[in-house]
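Translate sequence into structure tokens.
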Amino acid sequence: MSTGPLISVIMPALNAASHIGDAIRSVLDQTWQNWELLVVDNGSQDDTARIVSEFNDPRIRSFLEHRRGVAHARNKGLDNMRGSFFAFLDSDDLLPPRSLEARASILLARPELQFADGAMERWNAEMTSLITTVTPGYSGPPFERLIRIDPSCFIGNTWMVRRSPGTEVRFPIGMSHSEDLAFYLLLGREGYYGSTNEVVLRYRTGHGSAMSDLEGQLNGYVRLLLLVRNEIPGVTQGQFKALRQRVQGIMLRSYLKEMRPLAAIKALLRLWR
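Result follows.
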């Protein structure tokens, strides 16, 4: 589809040479062709910039930045986008061919919606084996579900957002884990959410060590709790307690899965403060 609103796809990249070509090609292969891709290179030391430059398509714009984190990179894309709708794609993930069209069609058919979502496939690191498919199933105001990290409304960085005067939100600088949830919580105080059963993202798993991922996840949740308590007005004590209990449960299960009970206890204490 070459008509319809312009969709901005924002892609942060850091040392992504091994996968970014496939990610960009998945945007090029979209059935919805009225898009722009903003690639924000976050200080890569490999061939990321060269690979991006080899795509000779005026719809692809690249930005070279010093290494200031994924939140800053996404904000750079938000500051420079031109589309009526916007979505995100990490440089190691893939969009199925109908990803943009499936979500944009929801926003066009239902003008009361601010956010459109869809199913996500989780694949192994080589993208050769499908692990699971997660499908949201909610329609309505998203905030109450977001703050409970409810998978009927939040499964990852899969939302498409309709630009409006209420969507000038930016990612909290310095967060490298849970920054997408923080962004949606800041964004989702107003507006309505809808979803499709179509798969809109193929997510690649298996990066990094389990230990470093857990520590990063814990730090992200600590930052998230501080943000919700201090920077989002109107959050009730019950809502904050529900979020804290949810992230405590996630981290407890994660550390115990790695046979690290002492680290699990320390994580619970950090999240309780």
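Note: The chain has a mean pLDDT of 94.
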